[in-house]
Every structure is written in structure tokens, then in C-alpha cells.
Specification:
alpha/beta, globular
Length: 140
């Protein structure tokens, strides 16, 4: 289901204010993941756990000293084809989840945080989980 842009625009800004770049097409997803280095991909969503936990956690995590080379987002329910492409091509075999976060290194997924793991934590805890993944994968 495609959400109206006027409804989700503010939810997009919740991530772009932290420097997270939008990838709204399959080509933009591929381009972001083709770059060498580490890329955090956030599957954004309209649900409450995205608003109260996932998006604030991303902002907190990206304030740390160690962070990915790039952070991008697709919006489930907004960027339909980009989200489908991310899931089908780059996260094949991973159950779909909105919200969710994946860390890629040189185009390959090395860390994934499913909605179930987001729902049971508060934003600062999620930020710590992300920062631990950054520490493990973004410096080597």
C-alpha cells in the first residue's frame, strides 16, 4: 500500500535530519550499496516503533565516533519498488521487516536488526546495538 507523500514526509525528515540519504528507486539502492565501505540501510516505516525507537536510535548511533561511510533509507509504504528491490536482491533470505536496519560492508550484509529486536528495546539501547555493529564492521 502506497502512503500519500504528505502523510509520510515528516517521517522521512526524521532520518534525513541526521544526514541519512533517501534511496527511492532500485537504481539508487544499487548505487548506494555498490560503493566501497560500510553502508547503514534503514527501512523506515509509519509504525510507532519506527517513530519512538528506530528513527531516534539511528540519530543517536550516528553521533558516535565510529560510523558507516554512508547511511541511506528506503520507506516501506512509500518507496515501494526500492524497498522490494532491497529485500529481494540485497537481503534475500532475510524475513521482511519494517522498520529494520542492515549494515552492509562492500555491498554484502554483515548485520541486520529486525523489527522484533527493535520493538523490545528503547532508542538508547538500539543505538548501542548499532554502535557495537559499527565498531565491529566499520573500522576493519
Amino acid at each position: 500500500m502506497q502512503y500519500p507523500e504528505q502523510f509520510i514526509g515528516i517521517m522521512r525528515q526524521d532520518l534525513t535530519q541526521y544526514g541519512v540519504e533517501e534511496t527511492r528507486t532500485p537504481a539508487e539502492v544499487d548505487q548506494a550499496l555498490a560503493e566501497p565501505g560500510t553502508v547503514l540501510v534503514v527501512v523506515n516505516s509509519v509504525c510507532g516503533c519506527a517513530a519512538g525507537k528506530a528513527r531516534p536510535a539511528v540519530g543517536m548511533a550516528l553521533q558516535g565516533d565510529v560510523k558507516p561511510s554512508k547511511a541511506v533509507t528506503v520507506f516501506a509504504g512509500g518507496d515501494i519498488e526500492a524497498t522490494k528491490h532491497l529485500r529481494d536482491v540485497h537481503l534475500a533470505g532475510v524475513p521482511p521487516s519494517s522498520p529494520s536496519m542492515a549494515l552492509f560492508k562492500d555491498g554484502k550484509p554483515v548485520f541486520y536488526l529486525h523489527r522484533l529486536e527493535i520493538e523490545r528495546r528503547q532508542a538508547p539501547e538500539i543505538a548501542q546495538v548499532l554502535q557495537a555493529a559499527f565498531a565491529q564492521h566499520c573500522n576493519s
